[in-house]
Amino acid sequence: MSIMDRKIVMSGIRPTGYLHLGNYFGAMRNYVKMQNEYECYYMVADLHSLTTHPDTKELRANVHRVLAENIACGLDPEKAAFFCQSHIPEISELYLYLNMLAYKGELEKTTTFKDKVRQHPENVNAGLLTYPVLMSADILIHRASFVPVGKDQEQHLEMARNFAQRFNFRYGNVFPEPQAFNFGETLLKVPSLDGSGKMSKSENQMATLYLADDDDMIRKKVMKTKTDNGPTEHNSIKPDYIENIFLLMNLVSNADVINKFEIDFNQCSIRYGDMKKQLAEDMVRFIAPIRQKATDIMNDEKYLQNVMEQGAEKGRKSAVATLQLVKESMGLKYY
Ligand code: TRP
User: Fold this and answer.
1) Is 144's C-beta closer than 6 angstroms to any atom of ligand 1?
2) N or C: which end of the chain has fewer CB atoms below 10 A?
3) Distance between CA atoms of 215 and 283, rounded to whole angstroms?
4) Does the C-beta of 149 come closer than 6 Å to ligand 1?
5) Are 68 and 114 in contact (CB under 8 A)?
6) CATH 3.40.50.620 residue ranges in the chain?
7) Alpha-carbon distance 59 to 173, whole Å?
């Protein structure tokens, strides 16, 4: 593959709180893989977070944390462009142009918008309504083809395709239509520790393993997971909550260790206490170095500033080029 047809990848990360194991095996690991094969633009969506009026002091810490945690997980600012949305003013300019192509009716029908209206009827601002337009600008400004996102963002991505189409039809071909990208079968399931679906930023803090959890917290959370007295018949089917413990082990433990517990389970000699202890130690071994690295990065403000500056420079280069094409196509060129 020549450098000319290297596909462009773009994704955004909202700077809201702590990243967890579900984020790691869902999004972050894919970002890291993709940075070696594609031209990648990864963005901290700080402007998007303004739709819900975060505390301005918290915003800074959250942006630093999201940068640090992603880098600690392997995102390499030398390979990918890793930047903050607000450092690329061209995004906001494209957002304005795209707003002229976005209809009130379709924005009001967006699922995420309707959810927000229900949750916060006192803060239905125009930024919230046009959230998908800003997200489209994030993607289209780099003329990206692939967007690694989860199911919950697919409707936004479809809107980005619509806006791209409308622009191309009206003003000439500028934008490729961005597609969702996932590694399909390699997407690993990360169950919540309380057995209620997948691991997410949930109400129940004890059900989620955060990359910032200290060793004792990790142990405490793992040891609290539900088990029972064990199977009474050889080769039984595992109850969900036991299956979940195996799934978590699959993420961080060695194959022979997992095998041993599989055999124990099938022969009714499994000791869940031992299994959870093993899982706890393997989780600690996995999370501790990430946590340590993230903390080191967060304490190094100079380094973070460098990352942001370098990222903004790379991001702007691509953004400025697109915006020039956009303005020419639209006829916004008077001399
Ligand atoms: N809306 C995305 C989320 O809530 C974050 C995001 C912002 C994004 N801009 C993006 C994702 C562009 C992909 C591409 O997770």
Assistant:
1) no
2) C
3) 9
4) yes
5) no
6) 3-188+300-330
7) 37
Residue nearest to atom 5 of ligand 1 (CA): 12
Residue range 216-234, pLDDT digits in tens:
999 999 999 999 999 999 9
Task: Check pocket membership of 153 for ligand 1, CB cut-off 6 A.
Answer: yes
Q: Which of 153, 159, 179 to mutate to test the pocket of ligand 1 (most atoms within 8 A of CB)?
A: 153
Ligand 1 and 69: CB distance under 6 A: no
CATH code linked to domain 213-294: 1.10.240.10
pLDDT given for residue 138 in this prediction? 98
Residue 141 in contact with ligand 1 by CB distance below 6 A: no
Distance CA 319, CA 217 (A): 43
The residues of the chain that CATH labels 1.10.240.10 are: 213-294
The rounded distance, in Å, linking the Cα atoms of 211 and 157 is 28
Residues involved in catalysis: 116, 198, 201
For the whole model, what pTM was predicted? 0.94
pLDDT computed for residue 1 by the predictor? 47
Atom 11, ligand 1: residue with shortest CA distance:
12
Residues 192-203 have pLDDT tens digits of 998 888 898 877
User: How many whole angstroms from 42 Cα to the centroid of ligand 1?
Assistant: 10
Token pair for 84: 């903050």
